[in-house]
Amino acid sequence: MSESNQALTILIVEDNPGDLFLLEELLKSSSIPIGRLIKVLNSTDAIKTLQNENVNLVLLDLSLPDSNGLQSYESINEYAASIPIIVLTGLIDMEVALETMASGAQDYLIKGEFDEKLLDKSIQYSIERKKSQENLRESNERYKFVTKATNDVVWDMNLETKRILWAGESLKRLFGYELPDDESDFEFWSSKILEEERDSVVQRLLTACNGTGNELWNDEYRFKKADGTYAYILDKGYLIYKNNKAIRMIGSMQDITERKLAELQVVNSERRFRSLVQNGSDMIKILDKKGVFTFASPSVEHVLGFSLDSIVGKSTFEFIHPDEIEEIRRQFEIIKQTDYHEIQYFRFKNKEGEWRWLETKLTNLLDDPAVKGIVSNSRDVTEKKKAEEAIRASEERYRNLFFNNPMSIYIWDINTFEILEVNDTAQREYGYTRDEFLKLSTLNLRNEEEIPGYKEFVKKFAFAGNDTIMRIIWKHLRKNGEQIFMEVFSQKIEFKNRKAVIALANNITDKIKLEKKLEDERNAKQKEITEAVIRVQEKERYEISRELHDNVNQQLTVAMMYIATVEKGSENAEALLKQSSGFIYNAIEEIRKLSKALVTPLIKDFGLCKAIDGLLEDILVTNTMHLDFFYNDFYEEDISYEFKLNIFRIIQEQMNNIIKHANAKQVVIELYRDTEIKLSIIDDGVGFDPTSKRKGIGLNNIQTRTELYTGEMEIKSAPGSGCTVRIKFPVSNEILLYK
């Protein structure tokens, strides 16, 4: 078994539990590498399995609940054309089993009469036999393609039986004959040869077949077509030998009627030839057997500039380009051995020394006493050659642009959805070979549920203008079933006389996955920020509650107790009332401080810079650090209140961080504006390691406020080296009062 190491997926179609159990045990005991055993009870489930699973082998019982006998095999084989099938049958079903073998089954086994060794052998044989059948089928398809691609009629003759196998489509197209199974006897061919030529042609063919060592045969003759007319034929055959004996000849018949009639017309009509020479635009020249000009028509002077006297008597090889002279000499020798020959594209020097491209047809009239030379009919095809080279270069550029394009490109019929052409990138992207692609339609690249929407898109696109380019992101399927997202640009074109669409597709699966990942990360970041804000709010509420409970509440309670004592009568009532007044005043001051910390600063009344000055003055009341605030005539008249408040809160948050954690002696705050708004807060405190220390709530709040206006924040700090926070904001419409 050529793929003996490959684990097989085997589909067992058997409704008898006992037979199924025995079959499984035999499979386990065999040397067959088994990947999966899929067991179904009827042909309906078997068909579903074949449609959805990659099955390597089918073991089929012919007697099933929903089908029986040959019907079971035919229904399964319809969906398992390339999968080997082994039929399991009883003695009474032997005739049916043989019918299945004739219909394409690889083998059959009689239930109860085989062991694991026989099963092993049957499976290996069936897989190899199926593979051989598939290879033969592909070979036949390639042969049919070759015969369609040529205008010649290809034939294959068995020399022992004299039976000839024909390329039927070509035979019908060129000569009008249709043969049963594209096969005939030798008489069919020989009887169509013109009677006066028949014996000599047949004799030359048989002589070639009976000889030894000569592999080639060719001949020219006239062959009768189905409509009764005759065609001139150039027939070439290649002999195949076995043990030095010719056993087959394979050849092709080429219709050369047009060429032959042209040759005969030249030979048989000298007057007409003379008229053509004198008045035609083509250059007519006659050369002797050494290639020396003996005659030149007036058109030679018109095209190349040479007069009759200046060219006659000179060798044609004097004017041939050095790169092509050896090839032209070889071609000239050929015309000496035949009646007619054509030379495609060679360079010939004109009177001015320029190289002109010529196309020449040669007719051998050396034996004609009226000519005694080789007639050369040449045409200046320089412009044609340049045009062909331009077209070839254009086609090459197109091929490079199409086939080597980094994007997947495919062309499909807008009416049938059939894929007509595909480039190399698409083959790599989707996993199909070009041949596989050309058997698909664009519907095969999609999930079933998306096909209705796709058809609706095509229906609308069909009525769009030819210059319309449609861009849509589609979900496509690779050959292995993997789903990918493709950004497809489509435009209508004409391709091989069919209304088609050229589609350029770019795989954006990774991009979409990345965008989703970024979205998830943004959501997670936002959640983290929200949670941090909530924690700050809760902490703030807790601090306010503690201040009210531990400070304000205590002072008010003592004041109430003193007042109550005075009301009951006391000798030091005046002192108690004075102390109560002091406690109440302190409580009021504490509440004022709490309110000031919570209430939005008076930015609208005094401006951002004055509000920051006020914040720093309040900090200096209870702290001994040195504070410097530089704002260098900061212009803030055109900045929105919300952005100013955002700057204020950032400074307030960082100052709280410095007071609580930095133990700083000096803080410098800088706020200035040029093309950007830049804020720096620098302290000489204890510092920290930003790479190892996780950001606290304070820095997270500052980061959030920075990102709110698409700003950028940079933190530089190290243990014992203080901390520098630098923030910059773009001066955008988002922060300006006047957009």
How are the elements arranged and paired?
Blueprint: E1 8-13, H1 17-29, E2 34-40, H2 43-52, E3 57-61, E4 63-64, E5 67-68, H3 70-77, E6 85-89, H4 94-103, E7 107-110, H5 116-149, E8 153-158, E9 163-166, H6 168-175, E10 183-185, H7 186-191, H8 195-210, E11 216-224, E12 230-242, E13 245-255, H9 257-268, H10 270-279, E14 283-287, E15 293-296, H11 298-304, H12 308-311, H13 325-337, E16 340-349, E17 355-365, E18 373-380, H14 382-403, E19 408-413, E20 419-422, H15 424-430, H16 434-437, H17 451-461, E21 470-477, E22 483-495, E23 498-507, H18 509-568, H19 573-598, H20 603-606, H21 608-622, E24 626-630, H22 641-662, E25 666-673, E26 676-683, H23 697-708, E27 712-717, E28 723-730
Parallel strand pairs: 1-2, 1-3, 3-6, 6-7, 24-25
Antiparallel strand pairs: 4-5, 8-9, 8-13, 9-10, 11-12, 12-13, 14-15, 14-18, 16-17, 17-18, 19-20, 19-23, 21-22, 22-23, 25-26, 26-28, 27-28
Helix pairs in contact: 18-19, 18-23, 21-22, 22-23
